[in-house]
Amino acid sequence: MPSNKSVSDAPIFQFTNCRILRSHQLQREDLWVREGKILNPEKLFFDEKGSADIQLDCKDSVIAPGFIDVQINGGFGVDFSLAVDDVQSGISLVSQKILSHGVTSFCPTLVTSPPSVYHKVLPQISIRNGGPHGAGILGAHLEGPFISKEKKGAHPEHYLSTFESGAFQDLLATYRHLDCVRIVTLAPEMKRSSEVIQELTRRGICVSLGHSVANLSQAEEAVRHGATFITHLFNAMLPFHHRDPGIVGLLTSDQIPARRRVFYGMISDGIHTNPAALRIAHRAHPKGLVLVTDAIAGMGLAPGKHTLGQQVIEVDGLNTYIAGTKTLSGSVATMDSCVRHFLEATGCTVETALEAASLHPAQLLGIEHRKGTLNYDNDADFLLLDDSLQVRATYIAGERVWSQDTFTI
User: Fold this and answer.
1) Residue 21 sits in which domain range?
2) What class of enzyme is it (predicted)?
3) Which residues are annotated as a binding site?
4) 294 assigned to active site
5) Which of 294, 336, 379, 381 is catalytic?
6) What residues contact 395, with CB distance under 8 A and at least 6 apart?
7) Which residues define the annotated binding site for substrate?
8) 247-303 pLDDT, tens per residue?
């Protein structure tokens, strides 16, 4: 009789005594993993006549897909928008530290900067898988400089740019390197932005609308040309108005092309968005909500002065301001705390809160066939959490890369 070794010599791990998030529901099942992938136990039993090599008691944990943060500016003293000689060491430090917060993949985010910063930093960012060294890197998120000065937020005005006669060539001249870029945030009301959106989309780069004074029709036109994301909904855009709801109106627009879904980021830190606004957005378009941290270098550090690109930021508790102002500038929230706040503020299900930080960002980036779910054959990037959604352990490709000191399995 053939054994599981007839297919692979790799050990089979069986995670028991757990509740797995699968098909939008927590299910009392075991999780099977081999060679870094989620294994279908029926195929193992019936096709291979195999069984587990190692059983692990999860102590009634919730098992959820690893969190994916598509907007994080830095953390733990590292600012991704600074043109240092060794960008990779800073990214590596952040990627290691965020494992304890359940993040298994992320998009290092650069805020509006002079071209020289992009030219130096972007060649040093490489897409890579996660592992014991840290969370995986899915590609860079470039937030600016093609944004509105009226809604610049914490972005320095003198580095903002527009699309002139060259349109996409202007963007290329600014960034120079696009190989590692996954998301670009721009203001859709800018002249010739449609050409740029179309070309970025053609290259497989996600276009996000943000830091903008666009009206609804301009936002809808951008979506028709390929835009699929909204950068931190409500923040740095025109407020909702009943006669023209602006970008916010995309959540319930009837002008979205068939089979296209618009996603939107939310900074669920209790500071950037009132819980009532969070509830409104979630109830209007629950399947598009993507939790992001928008974390800055001060995340994980004591309050005081930190940086966000070219700006000095003062951190006071959970509040982050451009020094000497009351202009919000990113957050110091961690992803796991955003998930817990979202759950509490909206009264949604645990499954919904977890999917907003895993399934939805994966769908946004078109990688749900690999990440963001615990479906069979997907990457075994997952978390063990307790009933209050505190992270107990983090796994990437089936390997434990972080765990609480008091939690062992």
Assistant:
1) 4-65+373-403
2) hydrolase
3) 143, 154, 211, 232, 235-236, 243, 272, 328-330
4) yes
5) 294
6) 66, 104, 380, 381, 382, 383, 384, 401
7) 154, 235-236, 243, 272, 328-330
8) 999 999 999 999 999 999 999 999 999 999 999 999 999 999 999 999 999 999 999
